[in-house]
């Protein structure tokens, strides 16, 4: 399961399992989206939206653990993985694409947990007012994401907060330079910028293969969208139960964003903080992320109750 722009692990926890179904879904502007469906057709549905420079392979650990008793739907954002590049790169396009995937994979009236990591969470915020999204979203999980001020708050560069750090961060994150092959130096840089200190070599390798597999043009185009992102209004429209999950050592999207989301969400379903984890939480803490997804499905998709939201701090 590989192509010119699709790289991932081929064995172990982070090797993507074979899907039950593969689809090509057209979006509103005829962009073509690669979609996978895993697990039993009649199981409760989970939709997973990946982040910038990633692909469906980023969710491999969650798919592997959930697909036995959930229907897990994953897709490649336009220009990522097996979804071809599009000249249209906007938050509106992200919302269009998510709605197209929901229309193609869920029946009328069916509800799901919709989870997004990083840009995938921003996709959910962009879709917050869309009728189809609202009809299908029983609950939401926002992982390692933020709604605005992404470059200004980024701590990838060890500099004091201010205009200089913002300008240099924008240059680094928006670079048009190809990432090249995955080398020992590339792994060290990726780990420093996006992962916690306890990340294992396998975790770093899994992320490096995925990120380095993202086409340079798509990486740059979407970096420009993220640099000027303002989806604060979308957060306030997420009035379904919405949980937040974040790594305390996230340099790329620091924890200040998680606390802002918690304060602004109309129906926050709790904050899960993962001590020592960086930005790549589904890879760095696969059991905890998968466990949070299971909890949300059992409470809001298949369950009848809605417990009072409680902040959750998971131990190291």
Automatic annotation (TrEMBL):
The lineage of its organism: Bacteria, Bacillati, Actinomycetota, Actinomycetes, Kitasatosporales. GO terms for molecular function: hydrolase activity. It holds the Pfam family Abhydrolase_1. The keyword Coiled coil does not apply. PANTHER family: BLL5160 PROTEIN, HYDROLASE, ALPHA/BETA FOLD FAMILY PROTEIN. Keywords: Hydrolase. Residues 1-21 are annotated as: Disordered. It comes from Streptomyces graminearus. This is Alpha/beta hydrolase. Residues 44-286 form the AB hydrolase-1 domain. SUPFAM superfamilies: alpha/beta-Hydrolases. InterPro entries: AB_hydrolase, AB_hydrolase_1, AB_hydrolase_fold.
